[in-house]
Write a structure and sequence with these properties.
327 residues, alpha/beta, six-stranded parallel β-sheet, 14% strand, elongated
């Protein structure tokens, strides 16, 4: 079985874990096409023609493309590939939740067999699916990368949040900002925020954390706070899986369905108040209840390592393909 992998390759966020997991499962049947770097070097037209040529020559059974909001590969190219390769299984995966459907996805989804998405927003995408099947596939990580604690971090606060400031962009951004401000007031220097866009006068902003170094920061903290940028949907960012793999207690904002999908986490119903998070952080640091949070963290690490790696996602792609061919 052969798979053509089209990762979303941007500097600093290379999809090493995806490639590693797919290679483990598909072996010599794996081929990667870095379409974004090629567009930067040779232009859009050459990149589109190269993809058409690769499909003709490599003859993959599956294309697994991470498109999201990129416009490099045009709808016309996907239509050509679909017409010239009617038995090819075209799949795309999106790992970044949005409150809207990117225009390019609207145009290309009808040419695909499966749209894997890391949210349960099927109703939002339904008008554009046509014969394309929608499947929930949450983000995953590379366990070797996530548990590499050798990276230098400097002093890490007892409670940390790693994420960017989205107060004016996404539906849960304002609450996330309010929570960071409340935790900064309550815990002072014991709490720290890493990421871009934060006002140091409003929150205890510590600095930047390289994406690939998150595990070291989480491992050296005593509590991790995880709040996503969109509210009311089943979704979690890779932050949560990195944190779970670190073995540090994680306090997570409740989202519908998350407790059924992730059984070893401490969820907090945020509502309009930040009090639940503040109380949970005190409990996690305290002597009376801290042991319970640590015990949950032990199970969370096992759960993340056994269910949320890129190898497991690659195995699912293979199984879905085999099941689809049998039907």
């Amino acid at each position: 079985m052969k798979i053509l992998h089209m990762p979303l390759t941007v500097p600093g966020s290379e999809q090493v874990g995806q490639e590693k997991g797919l290679r483990e499962v598909f072996g010599e049947g794996y081929l990667k096409f870095d379409y974004l770097p090629m567009e930067g070097q040779q232009g859009k037209e050459a990149t589109n023609q190269t993809l058409v040529n690769i499909v003709k020559e490599f003859k993959p059974d599956i294309v697994w493309a991470q498109i999201q909001e990129t416009t490099t590969i045009t709808p016309k190219t996907w239509e050509t590939i679909r017409k010239e390769n009617p038995n090819l299984w075209l799949t795309t995966w999106s790992g970044d939740a949005r409150d809207y459907v990117p225009q390019n996805l609207q145009q290309i989804l009808p040419f695909f067999d499966i749209f894997y998405n890391d949210t349960d927003q099927v109703d939002m995408y339904k008008p554009y699916l046509e014969s394309c099947r929608y499947e929930f596939m949450p983000i995953a990580v590379d366990p070797d990368e996530a548990t590499d604690y050798s990276h230098p971090t400097g002093p890490v606060p007892e409670i940390v949040f790693i994420g960017n400031h989205y107060a004016n962009t996404f539906s849960n951004g304002q609450f996330r900002k309010e929570l960071m401000m409340a935790l900064s007031r309550e815990f002072g220097d014991k709490f720290g925020v890493y990421g871009t866009g934060w006002n140091q006068g409003e929150v205890n902003w510590v600095g930047m954390c390289p994406v690939k170094h998150q595990g070291a920061y989480y491992n050296r903290a005593k509590v991790v706070v995880s709040v996503d940028h969109i509210k009311g949907i089943l979704h979690w960012s890779e932050r949560l899986i990195w944190a779970m793999m670190s073995g540090t207690p994680v306090i997570v904002e409740y989202q519908p369905g998350i407790e059924e999908r992730l059984t070893s986490i401490n969820t907090i119903a945020s509502g309009p108040s930040t009090d639940g998070f503040i109380a949970a952080c005190h409990d996690a640091l305290g002597d009376e209840l801290g042991w319970k949070f640590k015990k949950v963290a032990e199970y969370a690490k096992i759960e993340a390592m056994s269910k949320h790696t890129w190898k497991q996602r690659a195995e699912r792609i293979k199984l879905d393909y085999e099941a689809g061919k049998q039907n």
